[in-house]
Amino acid sequence: MAWFLLFLAGLFEIGWAVGLKYTDGFTRPTPTVLTIISMIMSVVLLGLAVKTLPMGTAYAVWTGIGTVGTVLLGIVLLGDPANLVRVFCIGLIIAGIAGLKLAA
Predict the structure, then answer these.
(1) DSSP annotation of 50
(2) How does the average pLDDT of the chain come out, rounded?
């Protein structure tokens, strides 16, 4: 269950990171409220997950999920560059997340 909560926390991490772009400097009310809710949910779920998972592993997986998801959505939604080096680095992050999961 802790890994599922951590995964959900990572999804909310992606939501608030991408949501920041849509808040337009916190001047747009709906995206701002949704982003703040995502921030709170992300941290709360991380807090629940670390009750049973090692803190370092949970934090690294949480930020890894957030990083990979944010980069991918940046490419898909915002036109961020998708070159070979970026894709390779995303693969390294995914490999690190998988390694930490297997080692926990």
Answers:
(1) T
(2) 95
Q: CA separation (Å) from 99 to 12, 17, 41? A: 22, 24, 25
Radius of gyration from C-alpha coordinates of the chain: 14
What does each C-alpha distance from 101 to 55, 73, 78 come to in angstroms?
12, 23, 30
pLDDT in tens, 52-77: 999 999 999 999 999 999 999 999 99
Share of the chain above pLDDT 70, in %: 100
Q: Distance (Å, rounded) from C-alpha 1 to C-alpha 9? A: 12
Alpha-carbon gap, residue 37 to 48, rounded angstroms: 16
Q: Is 51 helix (H, G, I), strand (E, B) or coil?
A: coil
Contact yes or no for 10/62 (Cβ under 8 A): yes
Is residue 38 within 8 Å of residue 21, measured between CB atoms?
no
CB-based contact 64:89 (threshold 8 Å): no
